[in-house]
Amino acid sequence: MRVLKVNKENTKNILSDLLKRSPNNYDQYAGTVQGILDEIKEKGDEALFAYTEKFDKCKLTKDTIQVTEEEIKAAYEKVDDSLVEVIRKSLVNIREYHEKQKRNSWFDAKPDGTILGQKMTALASVGVYVPGGKAAYPSSVLMNIVPAKVAGVEKIVMVTPPNKDGEVTPATLVAANEAGATHIYKVGGAQAIGALAYGTESIEKVDKIVGPGNIYVALAKKAVYGHVSIDSIAGPSEILVLADDTANPHYVAADLLSQAEHDELASAILVTTSKTLGEKVQEEIEGYLKKLSRAEIIEKSLENFGYILEAETLDEALEVVNAIASEHLEIVTANPFEVMTKVRNAGAIFIGEYSSEPLGDYFAGPNHVLPTNGTAKFFSPLNVDDFVKKSSIIYYSKDALKAIHNDIETFAKAEGLTAHANSIAVRFEEEE
Q1: What angle do CA 54, 55, 61 make, to 5 degrees?
Q2: Is there a binding annotation on residue 415?
Q3: What radius of gyration do the chain's Cα atoms show?
Q4: pLDDT tens series, the chain, 432 aa
Q5: Is 362 annotated as a binding residue?
Q6: How many whole angstroms separate alpha carbon 57 and alpha carbon 63?
Q7: Which among 395, 360, 387 has a CA at the least distance from the CA of 237?
């Protein structure tokens, strides 16, 4: 990990370095992705099956594309009972947390004859993309499906790539079934995003697409945005630990590596007011690398996007924290709750030495689908609001409109929109 002093120039360079990982910088693949989407839109199932055979070496038909009840039952037999139990415990926490995010429609009636309000309506259908193979994460299945279910979405369609034998990762199927997916299809990649966005003979179009994927999936989601809604264009994982001399370097090092092991583009940053802590964390990392299974990936991640940033004061450290706006932020300081109040930009905030990042990934309840690449400055974690839409409600009685109709007409005429003004005026033309 590179050790740097906190200053404006170094912060600027780090931000520039981190932004290189954004999917928006991989437009060389955009043409390929658009070609796949266009073909799915034009040829439907024919293209969907062809691309599945090409990329996943699996031959599908309209009779085999959808996961059956028998396949789901078989998946339970292949997954350890202990994991099924943990999935169910995690589901309880995730559901309870998201239940607290629900909002009701509201109406405000006034004595002057006006009623204003907001009507909350769940989306009718949502598509959830789930990676397959070695990148199968049943925890992400729960995080993407549960808030949609809590919001009241009736149709939750999950897509995930099959292996060459037409099988889906068993743990993924179990998680989807427990969380409440209504349909599961054996397709992945940009072609699956196209099917969800445009519809084919086998897969109906959805209103919104959520879930992580590789660069082709990310670019496909970007391309179909506007035709359907999406959650975000997710970038590589990242963690920032803000620590002072009270922090345990053994714990801090472990937490940094928990994200560095994702892939070579993952970012792990320690911002500290203690030079001694930084040195001890470096030593701890060397020790961990001798025994962790993904040490090679971790080493490349730390070499590319690993930093130890030394700040003179906690306020200076917080400036860097807010500038980076990390996906995951751990606060391990003498007064972590007080420090938390000064954090403006972070996807998820973990407070204290026993609130390590994997707690949020798997079990605590808050969603682990978080804004990356600095987008925590203006985006929020995936939540129930992402699966509802809001309609404004407006009612005016005749007397209420009469009291203000001249104001509306004046405004409309000022914009040169005489038909707008007339729409109001005709209701009172016999009275004028």
Answers
A1: 60
A2: yes
A3: 26
A4: 888 888 888 888 888 888 777 776 777 889 999 999 999 999 999 999 999 999 999 999 999 999 999 999 999 999 999 999 999 999 999 999 999 999 999 999 999 999 999 999 999 999 999 998 666 789 999 999 999 999 999 999 999 999 999 999 999 999 999 999 999 999 999 999 999 999 999 999 999 999 988 889 999 999 999 999 999 888 889 999 999 999 999 999 999 999 999 888 899 999 999 999 999 999 999 999 999 999 999 999 999 899 999 999 999 999 999 999 999 999 999 999 999 999 999 999 999 999 999 999 999 999 999 999 999 999 999 999 999 999 999 999 999 999 999 999 999 999 999 999 999 999 999 876
A5: no
A6: 17
A7: 360
Which of 178, 284, 327, 330 is an active site residue? Answer: 327
Q: Domain 2-22+235-365, CATH 3.40.50.12500 — does that match?
A: no
Task: Examine the residue annotation and report whether 250 is marked as an active-site residue of this protein.
Answer: no
Through-space distance between the first and last CA atoms of the chain, rounded to whole angstroms: 78
In the block, residue with structure tokens 């396949």: 71
List all residues 6 or more positions away from 166 whose beta carbon is below 8 Å from its beta carbon: 58, 59, 60, 64, 186
Helix crossing, 170-179 with 69-78: angle to 10°? 120
Catalytic member of 328, 353, 357, 368: 328
DSSP state of 365: S
329-334-337 Cα angle (round to 5): 55
d(C-alpha 331, C-alpha 267), whole Å: 17
Of 203, 220, 343, give the one whose Cα is nearest residue 271.
343
Consult the annotation and say whether 420 binds a ligand: yes
Map out the domains of the chain as residue ranges: 2-22+235-365, 25-230
Q: Answer for the pair 339, 242: CB distance below 8 angstroms, yes or no.
A: yes
Would you say 183 is a known binding-site residue?
no
Residues 6 or more apart whose CB falls under 8 angstroms from that of 350 comprise 328, 329, 330, 331, 356, 357, 359, 360
Domains 2-22+235-365 and 25-230 share a fold: yes
Residue with tokens 């630990």: 241
- Reply yes or no on whether 328 is catalytic: yes
Question: What span, in angstroms and rounded, lies between the C-alpha atoms of 299 and 1?
Answer: 9
3-state secondary structure of 304: helix
Say what angle helices 249-260 and 295-305 make with each other, to 10 degrees. Answer: 100
CATH superfamily of 25-230: Nitrogenase molybdenum iron protein domain (3.40.50.1980)
Tokens of 228: 């359907």
Contact, 264 vs 272, CB < 8 A? no
